[in-house]
Amino acid sequence: KECNILAISGSLRRSSSNKALMKAAILLAPIHMNFTVYEELNSLPHFNPDLDVEEGPIAVQDFRGKLRAADGLLICTPEYGNGVPGVLKNALDWVVSSAELMNKPAAIITASPSPRGGDKAMESLLLTLNMIHAEVSEGATLMIPHIGLKLNAQGEITDEDTKQAVQALLRKLHTTCEEKQAL
Ligand code: FNR
């Protein structure tokens, strides 16, 4: 059965390594896994409960609709200031009340030039995703250190271990989606 994944990069940067990784991951994914890249992170307003009335702002409706339509979520994100990039946290804050991620399988990749691989962003992101009851299975998280050494100028993954780790993560996400669909 087809498994539709919404993919989000926590970096807005044009030459982002996380964006490159996300695109490379999509090309490595198993068949029957279809990806939509959410490109509108930057158009979401700052979360404000005062705006979260009736259907909410158009950009928020669009984001929530895309999450509802997806069977699962893939996040690739850097770490900024020992935490989750503000734009990504902002997006997640918009779905705390509306609960689109409740029971939805999610996989997370953090990539960083540092040897720690964005561990603090990962930890923080997991706290948030757990709070909103997204389903992050064991094996659905991956921290990639020294990212600059693992991608070439075309944004392809040149490191074999990284490639395999990304494929394993996607297989895990796919399996979790299939299990949900079988319920
Ligand atoms: C960073 N970077 C960074 N890296 C990290 O591992 N932990 C951190 O806390 C931070 N903090 C941070 C703050 C600011 C203001 C900048 C500009 C950068 C480095 C960051 O991981 C690096 O720039 C990545 O390349 C960003 O990811 P993208 O844009 O390549 O996907």
TrEMBL record:
Transmembrane segments: none
Pfam families: FMN_red
Residue intervals of the NADPH-dependent FMN reductase-like domain: 4-146
GO molecular function ontology, one term from the record: oxidoreductase activity
Keyword entries, A-Z: Oxidoreductase
Keyword Iron: no
Family per record: Belongs to the azoreductase type 2 family.
The protein, known as: NADPH-dependent FMN reductase
